[in-house]
Structures are given as C-alpha cells and as structure tokens.
C-alpha cells in the first residue's frame, strides 16, 4: 500500500471496517508498532535500572580485559540487545496471540450492536483504525462500560486530526448505545495519544508497571471517560 503524505480534511471518511480492508488495516497496525520501536528503546535506555546495568557491565568488562576499546563495544552491544528485545516484543505483538482480534474482526467487533470497528479512509487508503468492545464494569452490574481498542494512525497521516475524529466517533457511538463509560489502556511510549485522550475528556485512573512476557517492564496508563458527565 502506497500512502500519500498529505491530504485534505474533506478527503477523510470514517466508516465501518469491511473485509477488503483486512490487508491495509493490518499494515497500518504494523506501521504503528514499528514506528514505536525507537521510542521504546529510548525509554528503556533512560531507565535508571538499564543505565545502572550498562555502567556496571561496562566497568566489569573493562577491568577484565584492561582494554579501553571494551568500553564503547560493550555499550554498543547493550544498545543492540535492547533494540533486539524491543523488536522481538513488537513481532510477538504483531504476529502472536495478541493479533487474534485482527484476524477475526467480524467475529470480535461486528457481531453485536454494542461493538464496532472503524477505519479512517483517505484517498481510498486506510489511514487509521479504532474499535469498541463491551467491558465488564469495575463498579456494579448496572453500568454498561465500553473498551476502546486499536487506535492507530499511519505515520504518514499523523498530525492531521484523524485520531481525534476516530475517538470522537467512538464517543458518539457509545452514547447512542447507552454506555455509561469508555475505558482504555495505553503505555508510556504513547504520549501523544495520552495527551489526545485527556484533551477529549478521558481521566487517568491509575498507572502501573506490567511485565511483557514476565521480562520487559512496561508502564501502563488506565483511562476512563464518563459519558454521563459529558451529557450534563
């Protein structure tokens, strides 16, 4: 899929996903994940634990070999290891069990009036995606809570307001479906997305550290949008 670098707002169409979008939606998802590899590496390398580990290992290697060239070589190897682990995590996310829903979009998102999957189309190409599924309420059984998922915009179309229009579409959908809240989970690498959510009324409920496959620490941010407050 060849993406154009510019578009007009009038060229944007938010519509329901259909089977012909399968290849392009997965490509947009891959692009979004690959574009986060370098930011993920930078975050990991800035962590105190990573910085300390590299320093200790570098010093140990230097004292063992008594060679000044061991210092830059060790640092570079550590950076490469971080990049490799991040890349492997991305591949697992894109081709492993987490991709189940994208391989079954109709079954997961289009089999109920309370769930949906949208694409943002620009000049005939899929430029972004977003989805809603029903979530169990944290508070009581009388509340109807939605879960926002799969917000991705291809890097060539970012900064054009597409993500905002996608989120707004889900907010309208959830109001019409009588949801009381919309929840979502994002990570430390998605700072622009967090800023967008907060500007659109989502409130941060909690943030905590999760371990990807029990190995890689990832700070996660739990947001919620109160539809009843928006209606007041």
UniProtKB/TrEMBL annotation:
GO molecular function terms attached to this record: N-acetyltransferase activity
Pfam annotation, one family: Acetyltransf_1
Transmembrane segments: 48-65, 71-95
CDD domains assigned to the protein according to its UniProt record, in alphabetical order: NAT_SF
Signal peptide: none
InterPro entries named among the record's database cross-references: Acyl_CoA_acyltransferase, GNAT_dom, NAT_camello-type
UniProt entry keywords in alphabetical sequence: Membrane, Transferase, Transmembrane, Transmembrane helix
Residue stretches making up the N-acetyltransferase domain: 79-228
Protein name: N-acetyltransferase domain-containing protein
